[in-house]
Amino acid sequence: DRTVVLITGCSSGIGLHLALRLASDPSRRFKVYATLRDLRAQGPLREAAQSRGCPPGSLEMLQLDVRDADSVAAARARVTEGRVDVLVCNAGRGLLGPLEVQEAGAVGSVLDVNVAGTVRTLQAFLPDMKRRRSGRVLVTGSMGGLMGLPFNAVYCASKFAIEGLCESLAVLLPPFGVHVSLIECGPVRTAFQEKLEGGPGGALDGADAETRDLFSRYQRHLERIFHEAAQDPE
């Protein structure tokens, strides 16, 4: 049987490239369920799959919103093989700017997607893996889960939480035959920066002049880092 892989957050970036990489593997060992919060965003993935020559039946796109437990359950029910061998929790949101100007809705959204969304996804798929005593879980973390990064307070808080979540599971799950991997990414060239919750910086008018100046300098530094040192998703 092929290895059944389900990946969250496949509209762009790491999720999209991973789905393509596995679905186009010459060995045809993988059946990939690439999930997206909004299927209207599937165009880039579908076009790339055609250009990469993904074999028929190797890639299927499903709607899955990690903020909605019913959506996660519905996606799980549409996996025709009745099992997921590899679960990749990749969906995430960023939030950049001075903490004092971030709106409560933006803060809640990032924590809901990055932390609670990962928990919802794991709750949906772990029981079957434990029952079958077989499975792999990969979670997209961040170097922002290892150290605090300026102007990324809420994002880092969410990724620190993911560290604790995965470390706790990594201790518990091996006797059930389930292995957990946490990928602590550095800068990667994706659309992540363009999809920041609330835009880059939030409502900066609410910050003092010195903080606004520091943020402007940090943005220039960040642009240079992504230009000079960022990895491609591949």
TrEMBL record:
Pfam families: adh_short (PF00106). It comes from the Eukaryota. Keywords: Oxidoreductase. The keyword Ribonucleoprotein does not apply. The keyword Oxidoreductase applies. GO terms for molecular function: estradiol 17-beta-dehydrogenase [NAD(P)+] activity. One of its GO terms (cellular component) is cytosol. One of its GO terms (biological process) is estrogen biosynthetic process. Belongs to the short-chain dehydrogenases/reductases (SDR) family. PANTHER family: 17-BETA-HYDROXYSTEROID DEHYDROGENASE TYPE 1, RETINOL DEHYDROGENASE-RELATED. This is 17-beta-hydroxysteroid dehydrogenase type 1. The lineage of its organism: Eukaryota, Metazoa, Chordata, Craniata, Vertebrata.
